[in-house]
Design brief:
The radius of gyration is 28 Å and the shape is elongated. With 174 residues, it is mainly alpha-helical. The strands form two sheets. Strands 1-2 form a two-stranded antiparallel sheet. The chain has a two-stranded antiparallel ribbon with strand order 3-4. It has helices at residues 9-15, 42-63, 65-78, 80-93, 95-109, 119-127, 160-166; strands at 19-20, 34-35, 133-137, 155-159. Helix 5 crosses helix 6 (119-127). It has two domains: 9-87, no CATH class; 94-166, no CATH class. Bound molecules: zinc ion (ZN). Zinc ion binds next to helix 2.
């Protein structure tokens, strides 16, 4: 609120401002700016009206899930750039999560993921992987002699360099 001019609604309107500040509390006790257009207190907007609007929006969502999904689909179809940007931002904020799911997807294609494996255990291994390390299959998934499984106990954190040199070698002492 710093730098806000003390003025009346009429004065703010005359100055072409969107907000004005009288220094007097609203009926809910906020000493806050008000909107010139609606005369409503900004704090009230945040604390009272915004949560109400959110609640209404989420109630609508639950009553109209299919329509909501259609709307987002339509939006995504007509805004491919924004959609890609959002997807990219999400996956870079959830990189390990994506990596874990991608690894399971690939392992599934090799039929290396038993159906009873708990994906959240696998995600945890990816999410706890220290910097400079990769998640490595102790017994490789694809090998001439043996086929490892994509299961938590066949996963280990390996320094990235080791993982690259190890490649698909398997030195099993079995
Ligand atoms: Zn208020």
């Amino acid at each position: 609120m710093s730098g806000t001019l003390l003025c009346s609604r009429a004065e703010a309107k005359a100055l072409g401002l969107k907000r004005y500040f009288t220094g007097k509390p609203c009926k809910h006790g906020h000493i806050s700016e008000r909107r010139v257009s609606s005369n409503t207190c900004i704090e009230c907007g945040k604390t009272t009206y915004a949560p109400l609007a959110r609640e209404r929006a989420s109630l609508w969502y639950y009553d109209n899930t299919d329509r909501a999904r259609d709307n987002s689909q339509r939006w995504a179809d007509s805004n491919p750039e924004s959609r890609r940007a959002i997807a990219n931002r999400w996956s870079s904020n959830n990189r390990e999560y994506c990596r874990a799911n991608l690894a399971t997807y690939k392992a599934r294609k090799l039929s290396a993921t038993p159906p009873w494996v708990n994906q959240s255990d696998i995600i945890e291994i990816y999410e706890t992987c220290p910097d400079g390390h990769h998640v490595d299959h102790i017994i490789p998934l694809r090998h001439d002699l043996v086929c490892g499984l994509h299961v938590p106990w066949n996963l280990q954190h390996l320094p990235a360099y080791d993982n690259l040199t190890k490649s698909n070698r398997f030195e099993g002492g079995w």
